[in-house]
Design goal:
The structure holds two protein chains of two kinds.
Chain A (H helix, E strand, L loop, with lengths): L2 E5 L2 E3 L5 E8 L8 E6 L5 E7 L8 E3 L7 E6 L4 E6 L8 E8 L6 E4 L3 E5 L2
Parallel strand pairs in A: 2-11
Antiparallel strand pairs in A: 1-3, 3-8, 4-5, 4-9, 5-6, 7-8, 9-10, 9-11
Chain B lengths: L3 E4 L2 E4 L5 E7 L7 E6 L6 E5 L3 E2 L7 E6 L2 E6 L8 E7 L11 E5 L1
Parallel strand pairs in B: 2-10
Antiparallel strand pairs in B: 1-3, 3-8, 4-5, 4-9, 5-6, 7-8, 9-10
Classes of the chains: A mainly beta, B mainly beta.
Chain lengths: 121, 107
């Protein structure tokens, strides 16, 4: 059974930093691209970032809204996915989901339960 | 970036009815369109990808159609567990973008 468990969310002040983690199990982690997707309270879904597998050189992609502030990374030896969030803004307040890509490019097949990030003074 | 326009924003229907949700892309995305269901307080679940391919375990009362810029998700014979929010998403390339969602409520 695929499991994705996020952690690391919390309350942080504007311009602060936070690092989210996602522990993956139940599948061969190192062969799949992984994503972060967020959802502001009461709002819709927004794709944040994608990281490909080692065989694709761990290539990374970001939404314009987080480029140069967020960094997605992975540790295949630990089956862990990360999101380093710097220079946080109030508009970054959201539930952040760790997502495993499906067998088809760009599809979000498995989702974690999410971790809530609140950016407020 | 590709904009996804979803309609209606909300929909009220009864158990047993058939409903259709539509999604329009701002440019040609061929068949690279997915649909997700999200129940209140839960994570989204993939329903359809490549416009019409049902994800594993998704009931056959769900069906997707369309190509190019116009897509739809049809739910036949609504069941109580089908109520929630639905989102379309293009998977043509980054940045992946979602529609604004359709909230399906019980009449």
């Amino acid at each position: 059974e695929v499991q994705l468990v996020e952690s690391g969310g919390g309350l942080v002040q504007p311009k602060g930093s936070l690092k989210l983690s996602c522990a993956a199990s139940g599948f061969t982690f190192n062969t799949y691209a992984m994503h972060w997707v967020c959802q502001a309270p009461g709002k819709g879904l927004e794709w944040v970032a994608r990281i490909r597998s080692k065989s694709n050189n761990y290539a990374t992609y970001y939404a314009d809204s987080v480029k140069d502030r967020f960094t997605i990374s992975r540790d295949d030896s630990q089956s862990m996915l990360y999101l380093q969030m710097n220079n946080l803004k109030t508009e970054d307040t959201a539930m952040y989901y760790c997502v495993r890509e499906g067998h088809y490019y760009g599809t979000f097949a498995y989702w974690g339960q999410g971790t809530l990030v609140t950016v407020s003074a | 970036d590709i904009q996804m326009t979803q309609s209606p924003a909300s929909l009220s229907a009864s158990v047993g009815e058939t409903v259709t949700i539509t999604c329009r892309a701002s440019e040609n995305i061929y068949s690279y369109l997915a649909w997700y269901q999200q129940k209140q307080g839960k994570s989204p679940q993939l329903l359809v990808y490549n416009a019409k391919t049902l994800a594993e375990g998704v009931p056959s009362r769900f069906s997707g159609s369309g190509s190019g810029t116009q897509f739809s998700l049809k739910i036949n014979s609504l069941q109580p567990e089908d109520f929630g929010s639905y989102y379309c998403q293009h998977h043509y390339g980054t940045p992946f973008t979602f529609g604004s969602g359709t909230k399906l409520e019980i009449k």
